[in-house]
Amino acid sequence: MRVGIPLPQGYFGEFAGWDRRQAWRRTAEVARAADRLGYDSAWLYDHVHTAPEPTDELTWESTTGLAVLAAQTDRIRLGQLVLYSGFRGAAHVRSMVATMDALSGGRVEVGMGAGWKEEEALAYGYPFPEAPARLAVLRQQLEVLRASLRPGIPIVVGGNGPRVTFRLAARYADELDLNLLTVEQVAAALPLVRARCEEIGREPSTLRVSVQLRGGLIGGPGEHRTQLLAAYRELGLARVIVAIQRECVATDEVLESLAEDARASGAELLPALSQT
């Protein structure tokens, strides 16, 4: 099991009151530190408003931000959690991902989802239809991406829906990313994921499964967090993505302690590099 992190980008108000240049400098510092410490991946959310309430505080756009970070990192993989299919057409997404793939030297992962933040879409004039219509658009985009992207660019479908989202992941994705599920909830979801693969004759082991976690699920540094990470690993997950962006705005120690706990849990991190 590998370990990724979302980067600070202002989505949770972590840059409230910051100068924009200093805020971006810190985002880049965290990305470089994660790269140095051996994390598998770094992610940005595809949101333009802060959460839980929209404010005028800055929030980095995911794809342009990751394109810049590609030039400032060496090993860590880069992706979006996850691109809302209603914001961009399939041709636009395909072009963005192909460009990022080249800029990053093949380290890009494309996260795709049907969206959930209605007020954000409506605020900028985008329609936000009911879930079946949004999922139909997602299916269309996944079809295009699967057919047109260079083989080897991982497609990650995000969502917890067993009836449609799991089926889309089984048909089009390399990875299904579950969102904020406990160990017990992941254990209950995995047989459904396997069943969706078997429905279409896909070997279930070829669809990786990951989960996003936040502080309330994973806790702080120490034995409890290590044991929880080990429990997720024992389920056979390919990756956990641990949201510590609010905590690591102030110090790299948060990144360092999570890396220590992850290694103690048996998770796979790349060898740490010396700080230059």
Q: Could you please describe the fold and organization of this structure?
A:
With 276 residues, the protein is α/β, with parallel strands linked by helices. It has a single domain (2-264), classed as Luciferase-like domain (TIM Barrel, Alpha-Beta Barrel), CATH 3.20.20.30. The protein has 10 helices and 9 strands. It has helices at 20-37, 62-70, 90-103, 118-123, 131-148, 165-172, 183-199, 215-218, 223-234, 253-264; strands spanning 2-6, 41-45, 77-81, 83-84, 108-113, 155-158, 175-179, 208-213, 239-242. Strands 1-2-3-5-6-7-8-9 form an 8-stranded parallel barrel, surrounded by 6 helices. Helix 2 (62-70) runs parallel beside helix 3 and helix 9 packs across helix 10. The chain is globular, with a radius of gyration of 18 Å. The chain starts with a strand and ends in a 12-residue tail after the last helix. The model has no long low-confidence stretch (mean pLDDT 93).
What are the defining features of this structure?
TIM Barrel, 276 residues, alpha/beta, eight-stranded parallel beta barrel
